[in-house]
Design a protein that fits this description.
With 421 residues, the chain is α/β, with parallel strands linked by helices. Helices cover 42% and strands 15% of the residues. The chain has helices at residues 14-33, 39-42, 59-77, 94-106, 118-131, 160-178, 193-205, 229-237, 249-261, 280-286, 305-317, 323-347, 352-360, and strands at residues 46-52, 83-89, 111-114, 135-137, 153-155, 184-190, 214-221, 242-246, 268-271, 294-297, 388-392, 397-401. The protein has a seven-stranded mixed sheet, with helices on both faces. Strands 2-1-3-4-5 form a five-stranded parallel sheet, with helices on both faces. Helix 4 runs parallel beside helix 5 and helix 8 packs across helix 9 (249-261). The termini are far apart.
Length: 421
Amino acid sequence: MSRDKTPFSAGLTRRQFSQAAVGAAVAAGALAAFGKAPAFAQNQALKVGVLLPRSGHLAQAGQACQRGADIAPAVLSELGYKVEILSADTESNVDVARSRTEKLINDGANVIIGAFDSGQTAAAAQVCEQRGVPLVMNIAAADGLTEQGYKTVFRNFPTSTMLISNGMALMKDLFAATGATPKTAVFLHANDTFGMANKKAIDTLFPTLNMPFGIVESIAYDPKAQDLSIEVAKAKATGAELAIVTTRAADAIMIVKEMVKQRWEPMGIVSPGSPGLYDEQTYKALGKYVDYAITNLPWYDPKAEMTRRVEAAFKKAFPSDRFEGYAFNVAFTLEAILVAADAFKRAGSPAPEPMLTALRATNLKDKMMVGPAITFDAKGQNVNLASACVQNIKQRPTVVLPKASAEADPVFPMPGWSKRT
């Protein structure tokens, strides 16, 4: 066979072609070294593996987070970012989370986003660290996630310590604003990774916070339980004036239903940072009975340009659903993808090392949540997240504190169950 029939016949020998290819690679490397993105990266999409509990006992929250991932490509495209979403369901199981993380990476994911639950996120973090692939947490609060010395883990979400510290400070503000102060409280919490992390934070911080009430008892429960009547009866029996809770939607619904059934009427129900009380499914299940419950947590800025973009995209994709009921999960999931996309744009490459270097240098001001720009400390934690006091008013999460951001005045004590209209 003649040599001139080969693909290299257009004026090049094999040796010449190889030399030209090497020269091109060297030139591309030189451009990258001077901070210019390689040409291939300019039109390349970042492959984002989104890991969420879309089935199992955390399905409601996981599906809400998934909506943020669903609208992310359209929202971020308007801002000059290109992302391709690869989704995986953890089935609310730690072992499944681990195996699905491996599969997402094997399928080509350049970065992992997830996983809402702290235990499942910890499993994903181990895999990402072993594989050298970045993990950007959307929602997961256990302090230990950024205390393991991992080099590939980044969290734009408060730790349990941050949630409790900020949440307790806002309780003092609530009491001052309303002129009503409870003297005793009972703490109801899930016994999973998230719930126990919050309990540990309360046990550690409470003695140092000079709170005006004492916690008479902490009551743990299984978030997978089908009935919490015993736990609520035990909490009622303490005579506590305030119910402090760490819940997700399913257990929040069970707790409030039991409180109504057992006619337990504390001065209020307050959560220092858990998602259950303002979830859309909670509103649908409880109606007026979830009104006046309070959650102290990071919240979206209704005046931010990013919020307007996300809300418009959400309404277009899900016209039958209320944005407010999904906004927290949507916002933190979309922001996690935005963090990754922004790093990719600056790195000019989806390869792990350039991505990790760019993530560490994040300084993202155009975002959705209240507070200063997103940055990460040496542990990969955003330490600048702020909280707001969000109260359910007419089955809508409404900012009532701080005063400068308030949409309404706080109501405390809450009206009794029979006085709701």
